[in-house]
Specification:
The protein is of the alpha/beta class and 252 residues long. The chain has a single domain, classed as TIM Barrel. It is 42% helix and 16% strand. The protein has an eight-stranded parallel barrel with strand order 1-2-3-4-5-6-7-8, surrounded by five helices. It binds 1,3-dihydroxyacetonephosphate. The site of 1,3-dihydroxyacetonephosphate has 14 residues, from strand 8.
Length: 252
């Protein structure tokens, strides 16, 4: 069955609010009318108001890069799912490897954040992926299966409509080393089989599974042509409007 591709930029800690506004003004004319995929920009929290305003009435949807799992309370510096929704955010990246590596994110907190995001009606882009050492040991499948299953603990069939999995091999992030299209497709297909075991084939076939890790204007078409790759989560190349546009075009 045809799944809609999702092309999401993950800006990481880049761009000020005014740069973000200028970037959207540059990007929108380039991607306008390209309705063949969903287009998302996942921006630093402080940029959300500027980007929601700049994208109003356009085909560009806004995502956040993290969400706290509590409804509200004494969590200084954190942002809740309800706050994101009220601010106009539709998507949120959860469990990015940089958060796992630098901010003590665990499979348990990824699951808690996922449930909080889904309960609030956000679309959750859940990141999974193996380290280079894990690939070399031949345990890629064990690693991504565990991350996927734990992230989806207590996530209902109904909520799976709003789940996107991003397969991001950690060794390919920001390194210029892309997984080959075959390597990426193989793991995305494996993740789909993990989802199928828990939720059945229909839900697995309807779930978007993105690839992320040095996706760029040059390699996007080949990656996005693979049967199990339903879009991309793009870091560096999403910060350049012409490059991001080429990737959006490759997903049409
Ligand atoms: P790069 O595209 O810069 O490798 O980053 C990928 C990524 O981490 C997206 O979330």
């Amino acid at each position: 069955m045809a799944r809609r591709k999702v092309i999401a930029g993950n800006w990481k800690m880049n761009m000020t609010p005014s740069q973000a506004k200028a970037f959207i003004e540059e990007l929108y004319p380039c991607v306008k009318g390209k309705h063949g995929c969903d287009i998302v920009v996942c921006v630093p929290a402080i940029n959300i108001p500027a980007v929601v305003k700049a994208t109003a009435g356009t085909c560009i949807k806004v995502g956040a890069q993290n969400v706290h799992f509590a409804k509200s309370g004494a969590f200084t510096g954190e942002i809740s799912a309800d706050m994101l929704v009220d601010a106009g955010v539709k998507y949120v990246v959860i469990g990015h490897s940089e958060r796992r590596q630098y901010f003590a994110e665990t499979d348990e907190t990824v699951n808690a954040r996922t449930k909080a995001a889904l309960d609030a009606g956000l679309k959750a882009i859940i990141c999974v992926g193996e380290l280079l050492s894990e690939r070399e040991q031949g345990i890629t499948e064990e690693v991504v299966a565990k991350q996927t299953k734990l992230a989806l603990l207590d996530v209902t069939e109904e909520q799976m409509k709003n789940v996107i999995i991003a397969y991001e091999p950690v060794w390919a992030i920001g390194t210029g080393k892309t997984a080959t299209a075959e390597q990426a497709d193989e793991v995305c297909g494996f993740i789909r089989s993990v989802i199928a075991k828990k939720y059945g084939k229909a839900i697995a076939n309807a779930t978007a599974i993105q690839y992320g890790g040095s996706m760029n204007a040059k390699n996007a078409a080949e990656l996005l042509a693979m049967p199990n790759i339903d879009g991309g989560l793009i870091g560096g190349a999403s910060l350049k409007a012409p490059d991001f546009t080429v990737i959006v075009e490759a997903a049409q």
